[in-house]
Amino acid sequence: MTTLTSPHDLLTAIPFLVGFKPTDSIVLISLKEDAINLAMRIDFPEEISELEIANLSRHLLRNDADSVIAVYYLPDFAEVDSPIVEKLSHKFASLPIQLKESLVVHKERWRSLICNDLECCPEIGNALPDIENSRVAAEQVAMGKPLPFENVSALNESISALDADGDLLSLIGDVPRINYQNNPVMQQRQGAEAVIDFIADFAADGVCRDKKLIALVLVRLQDLQVRDFALGSVSNETLDIYFNAWRWLLRNAPLGYVAPVANLFAAVAYERGDCALAHRALDRAESDEPGYAMTPLLRKVFTSGWSPSTFVAMRSELHPRICDAIFSGSINS
To answer: Residue 212: what pLDDT?
Structure first.
């Protein structure tokens, strides 16, 4: 994330951090040496318990954060002097880390709760900055990050299902399923190679036109070894390619084949810092296959306060073992 030097920069950066322009929200950002460590967004509640406040505080304290920023986007039902804001502000001020900034956004205006200079922070607040024409937006777009969605509905639409492709459905039906009674390694290897070919096609053209390959990938991703191979294949250099490829495949996957792709997309979205999009992808996975075991595991990771770098280290450690099992395993003839 670009350097944040003022509340103006902060308010233009937050939509990039959460993926959309937030309303009726509380956004909490923990920092370590002025670098963003974790960004969380929750719906602005009508009331909040001490246990919920304690849980939020624990997330902020993870990963050796040394300061925190709180931004409250007040809904219509909340007053400017909301007791929820007061409770949270009191709690965050008592934490063993610095409360670096605390902003309230209400009716398209913002003000700081910790600045007493009426020239820069008048009681009526300041107008929200124009995101699209800001320095932060220019820097983010230059780094390949798209402009944030207008709202949650637009964010959800970006990963919604497209119309079913009859030819693809037919090809999916033609793909032989893995027979786990015999040695499955050959078909798992076929699946891993199909993932490699699919990503290569997408890297070259921004789309995959080979429907037979798409069908093979969708069927083989139902195997846990192939799915975990795909999960660990991402690198810092290829993160954006995988993000775009899995999102494209998620939108084209027919019912019954969504959950593995949705989980893979959620993982790369989380690594990119698109936490809201990651959670929406898990929603699609749950809708497609409520009992899919990976979905609640990723949900727990995403809500536990783990930094994306910790998640990357975990899956990177697993990947060589998956590769060894698929590509070095014996195949019965």
So the answer is: 97
First-to-last alpha carbon distance for the chain, in angstroms, is 52
| Residue 44 near residue 149 (C-beta atoms within 8 A) | no
Instruction: State the average pLDDT for the chain.
Output: 88
For residue 167, which of 213, 227, 206, 207 has the smallest C-alpha distance?
213
CA-closest candidate to residue 262, choices 318, 322, 222, 216: 222
Element (H or E) spanning 72, and its range? strand 67-73
Structure confidence by residue, pLDDT tens digits, 209-255: 999 999 999 999 999 999 999 999 999 899 989 999 999 999 999 99
- pLDDT for residue 217: 98
Torsion angles phi and psi, residue 163, rounded to 5: -60, 140
**Helix 211-220 and helix 166-174: axis angle, to 10°?**
60
Place of tokens 């400017």: 80
* Residue ranges of domains in the chain, CATH in brackets: 7-151 (3.40.140), 166-327 (no CATH)
